[in-house]
Amino acid sequence: FSDAGLTGAAVVKPLTASPRYSGLHAVFKAPFGLRDGMGPDALKARLITFAGRRKQVPTGPLTLARAGRYLVLRPIKPTPALDWLAAQCVAAFDGFAESLAYAAPHQGVKLNDHQRLLLKSFGDPHVLSEYRFYITLTGPLDPAHLERVSQALWPMLEEICATGVTVDGLSLFGEAGGGRAPRLIGRYRLGSLGNPRLPAHRG
After folding, report:
1. For the ranges 19-23, 39-43, 197-201, which has the lowest average pLDDT?
2. DSSP string of 67-122?
3. Contact 62, 56 (CB under 8 A)
4. Per-residue three-class SS string for 151-181
5. What is the pLDDT of residue 16?
6. What is the value of pTM for the model shown?
């Protein structure tokens, strides 16, 4: 989302034992552990090629919304191009993921029959037809603070939401260990095989 002045990432997340907040981001492939015989270097090489062959995708106008205890930005209108990019991520990288790597966090969560089938097949019930693009802005907040934080953020986001942002690259994150947020391995520009690597943002 660099063109909009947002410091964040659209991500593919390997090697993560459980989903944790990792700053402003949008997920296209949920966290997963690498299956036996699949190494980080092979995954990185695949992502560089994958990103270089895909087009950048505008989100269209956005709205500030709640997703449970999180604040997120959601497209106001359907975004089939983003849904298709997410589906392509599943197809391209599911072969790297160990079986049911992402199933545990969904235990006890109410799922319909179709979502349970997706969970069994892909380790994630929110893929393909169940995928919904959004940009996570905050970590989990106390319910009493959600409205206050939302009101504080809106003046800074109103102009960005009116025009939307462009997903211009994909980022790869890996397990940092010690309960820390995932570490950024690399950011790769969409549609730029000649110069695929984006400079990593540093705090």
Report:
1. 197-201
2. ETTEEEEEESS--HHHHHHHHHHHHHHGGGBPTTTT-GGGTTS---HHHHHHHHHH
3. no
4. HHHHHHHHHHHHHCCEECEEEEEECCCCCCC
5. 35
6. 0.76
Structure confidence by residue, pLDDT tens digits, 171-197: 998 876 666 777 889 999 999 775 545
Which is nearest to 54 in space by CA: 172, 187, 163, 188? Answer: 188
Map residue 143 onto helix, strand or coil.
Answer: helix
| 32-54 pLDDT per residue, tens | 888 888 888 999 999 999 999 99
Q: Rg of the chain's alpha carbons, rounded to an integer?
A: 17
DSSP state of 149: H
C-beta of residue 192 within 8 angstroms of C-beta of residue 47: no
- Exposed / middle / buried, residue 158 (Cβ in 10 Å: 0-12, 13-18, 19+): exposed
The total number of residues written for the chain in this structure: 203
Whether the Cβ atoms of residue 97 and residue 32 lie closer than 8 Å to each other: yes
For 10-65, what is the HEC assignment?
EEEEECCCCCCCCCCEEEEEEEECECCCCCHHHHHHHHHHHHHCCCCEECCCEEEE
Tokens at 46, concatenated: 């695949």
**Residue showing tokens 């990185």:** 44
